[in-house]
Amino acid sequence: MNEYINLNEKNIEEEHICCAIGDPKHQEGVDEKKRWIKSKLKDGHVFRKLNARGKIFIEYEPIETAWVPINGKNYMHIYCLWVAGSFKGKGIGKELLEYAIKDAKDKKKSGVCTLVSQKKKPFIGDKKFFEHFGFKVVDTIDDYELMALKFDDKETPKFNEPARKMEIDSKDFTIYYSNECPYVEYEVKELSEYAKDKKIKLDFIKIDSLEKAKNAPCVFNNWANFYKGKFISNTILNANAFEKLLK
Length: 247
Description:
The chain has 6 helices and 13 strands. With 247 residues, the chain is an alpha+beta fold.
């Protein structure tokens, strides 16, 4: 029988949050992520993880307050479902998703939704996994898809109109990011130093409010790269990856 823990005000400081576990360079990002979670608990945010030292968790909250450019009523939105390493293939992902589905039903939601992609992308859900549980595509922007498991026919979530632009006015390399992910804090500093050293114009725009998240100019999960005004990827970049991308 697997044992799980839901983070709350009392245990969040003592518990690890899976993603950047055991990597000191990401400690500042972990602290920021925990602060972000604590600020979201009042909204019904759920971070549920296996009681083990590993990257095994699901994270979700009501769509009305979820920091994603998705519009909807009475849905739960899954930010991330991650089962890594030796924990794969043991039914843990199934248990985590079934918990979220049951939680949504118990709270009288109209369904559950999540972001996937037609082609596998980092930090994006596995489409085939969600299809197995009855999720269906309800909206699309380029290769990105919004999937939903509907409990009734009252509501269907969709991407907000600003997200459909997938472009910005600035022609400089621009990165949108938020503290939803503990990896981003370190990479923002690393890229800032790299750009300064190489005299490269690099802009960062922090998504630090619900309004900014809902009006993001692209499909946004926690990081978005723009170049020459166009969205190019959701891949979190380090200095090496950024240099290769520019070349």
